[in-house]
Design goal:
This protein has a domain at 27-257 and 373-436. Helices cover 37% and strands 16% of the residues. It is built from 20 helices and 21 strands. The strands form five sheets. It has a seven-stranded antiparallel β-sheet with strand order 1-20-19-15-14-11-10. Strands 9-4-3-13-12-2-21 form a seven-stranded antiparallel β-sheet. The protein is globular and about 60 Å long. 58% of the residues are buried. The protein binds 6-diazenyl-5-OXO-L-norleucine. The site of 6-diazenyl-5-OXO-L-norleucine has 14 residues, from loops.
């Protein structure tokens, strides 16, 4: 599957997109289960757990812990994540395992005396770290919805940490990019380099301290991570590099089980993540707006389709930045934002030809541009129809770049997802407002969008992506490709994407997304077009009458496998 995928991507990028070439990307197929992740070792672990009688939740938990070992750039114990779970009895759940601001965090912690944001302070080292949540997310999912004993589910991750795995080209490359930052943290160099040289392709990476932490979790459950020595080790590491996390912050952390956010779209039920992520709200708003337009008639890639998609993106992101934040701390007008009536009003105001200048929507919040991009998504379904969609992250690749000495895992740099100063863009250019300002214990706003599309109450499409703010649009576009444009799954994922997020007022497009005359049309409608490399990396599963199809986005190193 991978060989096909990589070969076809190279072909397509070098000679231009044509659907006959796209069809070279074959989905994995299975009738008993399907696992699609960013890493072939993690995918194999998920399939193994399904084959050994685990359900989709067991497999998702096994994959989550495995990614923390073999995909340290985004898989994690020291980060956060979101889980969308559908059980075969028809019940649906969302788990919010997003990091929180430490108790000593404060609104202006990233500002200088003049009130300006100090560049980098929320991105690198101690102060950038939010209180880790992902382990409690994994354990909550396992305890409530898993079937196998926890030690069994964690066995593959422990084995991979204890005995090591072979570093591949992708990991070598991301290590290489992080080399300079790793050098700033002795604990990071201790675990990921030998004689001062970072691990490279073909070498075996053994992580004994990480294995010990995993064994503690397997033996003691939540207490193995949130009590005992780990909270103290996290606090010590964080404070040594200027952070304020205490052992109590870690001990007090709890994931929250929530109702998933539901929206209908052309007869499908779309289930996604409610706040503290903005993903579900934005996706719902965009779908509600787009339901007003006959996208199927215009077709994929037509300037009229793109116009309506972009306008829907622009309005949803404007509302994201103005209104959204942690609902345990701020009041968010969710009912209004999610209502069909609100979308009707917006849809009616969209000019059928011309772009809406972003400045016309909430001008008081507008700011100059910025950019940036790792996170990881996995989708799993078992033979009974239990399904899980998980997106988890350290925020940037390797998060804060610092590893907890004595424990061997990276700490996130998720604090950058708060609005350090309302109106000032974060690394993804999201500007945020008062609703996303920093408060102790608060969850920072996310764009992660683990999603499931249900048909007649059963999973039809399971998907999600990394990519910061581009996540929401990547998920939307793959969904539209399937629901509106009737593309097969592989083609739906391959199809070049665009991205607009209100601010900056530009439209990013992947190679091949806008052919010449479409570009001309978009420019004449008032759009500013900016070419860009890969937008998102969608790991998806489609349920067909024959069985399960799985595709790992060829934009990344992932792998889908069924049986
Ligand atoms: O929660 C968020 O929206 C971001 N911290 C996600 C970061 C991300 O996807 C980076 N990956 N490319």
């Amino acid at each position: 599957m991978r060989a096909f995928a990589k070969a076809s991507l190279i072909l397509i990028l070098s000679v231009g997109t044509s659907f006959s070439q796209i069809s070279v990307l074959k989905p994995a197929f299975g009738t008993h289960g399907m696992v699609s992740t960013s890493d072939s070792i993690a995918t194999a672990v998920g399939v193994k757990i399904l084959k050994e009688g685990g359900n989709a939740v067991d497999a998702a938990v096994a994959v989550g812990f495995t990614l923390a070992v073999v995909y340290p750039q985004a898989g994690n114990l020291g980060g956060g994540g979101y889980y969308i779970i559908h059980l075969k009895d028809g019940k649906n759940y969302a788990i919010d395992a997003r990091e929180t601001a430490p108790a000593a965090a404060s609104r202006n912690m990233y500002l200088d005396k003049a009130g300006n944001v100090i560049p980098g302070k929320s991105l690198l080292g101690g102060l950038s770290v939010g209180v880790p949540g992902n382990v409690d997310g994994l354990l909550t999912a396992q305890k409530r919805f898993g079937r196998l004993p926890l030690p069994k589910v964690m066995e593959p991750a422990i084995e991979l940490a204890e005995n090591g795995f072979i570093v591949d080209e992708h990991l070598q490359e991301v290590f290489h990019h992080a080399q300079k930052e790793f050098g700033k943290f002795p604990s990071t160099m201790k675990y990921f380099s030998r004689n001062g040289k970072l691990y490279s392709k073909g070498e075996r990476l053994v992580q004994k301290d990480l294995a010990n932490v995993l064994v503690k979790i397997a033996d003691e459950g939540r207490d193995g991570f949130y009590k005992g020595e780990i909270p103290g080790l996290i606090a010590k590491q964080d404070q040594a590099t200027g952070g304020v996390i205490t052992a109590e912050d870690v001990e007090d952390y709890h994931a929250i089980v929530k109702e998933p956010l539901m929206v209908s779209y052309h007869g499908y039920e779309v289930m996604s993540m409610p706040p503290s992520s903005s993903g579900g709200v934005c996706l719902a708003e965009m779908l509600n707006i787009l339901e007003h337009f006959n996208l199927q008639r215009y077709g994929y890639g037509a300037s009229q389709t793109l116009h309506y998609e972009i306008e829907a993106m622009r309005h949803a992101f404007a509302d994201r930045d103005k209104y959204l934040g942690d609902v345990s701390f701020v009041s968010v007008p969710l009912k209004r934002l999610l209502s069909k009536a609100y979308a009707d009003t917006i849809a009616r105001e969209i000019d059928p030809f011309s772009a809406t200048p972003s400045i016309d929507i909430y001008p008081e919040l507008i700011h100059p541009p910025h950019e940036g991009t790792h996170t990881t998504h996995y989708s799993i379904i078992d033979k009974e129809g239990n399904a899980v969609s998980v997106t988890t992250t350290l925020n940037s690749y390797f998060g804060s770049m610092e590893v907890v000495d004595g424990a061997g895992f990276f700490l996130n740099n998720e604090m950058d997802d708060f609005s350090a100063k309302p109106g000032t863009p974060n690394q993804f250019g999201a500007i945020g407002a008062e609703a996303n300002s920093i408060e102790p214990g608060k969850r920072m706003l996310s764009s992660m969008t683990p999603t499931m599309v249900l048909r007649d109450g059963k999973p039809y499409l399971i998907l999600g992506s990394p990519g910061g703010t581009t996540i929401i649009n990547a998920v939307l576009e793959v969904m539209l490709n399937i629901i509106d444009f009737h593309m097969p799954l592989a083609r739906a994922e391959m199809a070049p994407r665009i991205h607009q997020q209100w601010v900056p007022d530009v439209v990013y497009y992947e190679p091949g997304a806008l052919v010449y005359d479409v570009r001309q049309s978009m420019i004449s409608r008032g759009y500013k077009l900016v070419p860009r490399e890969a937008i998102g990396e969608v790991q998806a599963i489609l349920v067909t009458p024959e069985g399960y199809e799985g595709v790992a986005d060829p934009r990344g190193p992932g792998d889908a496998e069924g049986y």
